[in-house]
Amino acid sequence: MKSIFTDKTKTPGDADLKIALGSTYVLWNKLREYVKKVAPDSTDEWKFSSEKFGWSFRISDEKRVIIYLLPRDKYFKVAFVFGQKATDSILKSKISSEIMNELKSAKVYSEGRGIRISVTDKTLVNDVQKLISFKIEK
User: CA of 40: how far to CAs of 36, 61, 62, 72, 76, in Å?
Assistant: First the structure.
């Protein structure tokens, strides 16, 4: 499923995001604030990748993208790319089996393993915060 925002000429604003995400808007902001807390020098930006995928939001540090936030209709996805060190650490951690299985089954590319996690409620937010920490540490 592609982004809820597909108009290349209009960068999504906070009001647009609040309407699109509904009750998950607060979770989106919680994750943004968490990244800023653990990576205070991080920067964020909206990026339009293509007609097919629309707008996404990424938060980066000086070395790489920490997390991608992908808006959908009344929820959002988070996406990560983990190198082998981070993957090994995550697989040894106490994280949800859903995320563990997603990571184990992810295809390995030269830049790492990419995973996407749907955030429809607060259930996985703590685990996503752990993934953010793993990403920053490795």
Answer: 5, 9, 11, 27, 23
Residue 52 phi, psi (nearest 5): -65, -40
Helices (H), 10-96: 14-21, 25-38, 84-91
Mean per-residue pLDDT over the chain, rounded: 94
- Asked whether residue 63 carries a pLDDT value surpassing 90, the answer given is no
For 82-107, letters b (16+ CB in 10 Å) and e give beeebbeebeeeebeeebeebbeebe
Model pLDDT, residue 1: 64
Average pLDDT value for residue range 51-66 = 92
The owner of tokens 């902001």 is 29
Segment 4-24 mean pLDDT: 95
| CATH number corresponding to 14-137 | 3.90.1150
CA dihedral 90, 86, 38, 130 (to 10 degrees): -10
